[in-house]
Amino acid sequence: MLKYIKLFIYMNKKIITIFIISFILNLIWENLHVFLYDNYKNGIITEFILLRATLADAIMITIITLPFILFPSIRKLDWIIILIGFILAICIEWWALGTGRWAYNAYMPIIPLLSVGLTPAIQLGLLGYLSFKIQLS
Predict the structure, then answer these.
(1) Which of 48, 58, 115 lies closest to 85, judged by CA?
(2) Of 10, 20, 100, 104, which residue is most buried, by most CB within 10 angstroms?
(3) What's this model's pTM, rounded to 2 decimal places?
(4) What gap in Å lies between CA 9 and CA 14, rounded to an integer?
């Protein structure tokens, strides 16, 4: 029984570590690329909005990396974190742009064919992968 308790604590530490790392990285990212957006729900983008986005991103990254923490045998496939994060980000951008949740300004680099911004498209995959790798060290 003690063995399982230790394993549970070990896994929770890893999960919490990924969440904290991804929260910090996403907070920096959100604040660095906010100038590429025109508005959020036709209003100004406040620090509170950026914090909410950061929290959502950190939760998504934690969920994306969870299988790689729980099943060490698939850690060698950790590059999949980038792929899953990219696909999820593209879907979120399509939804948000389509519903008018946010809008880009003229400075946002757009990915041709996908019609989404470059920085939000790579954010979840890149920061998810970095968060996972950092917690391993």
Answers:
(1) 58
(2) 104
(3) 0.91
(4) 9
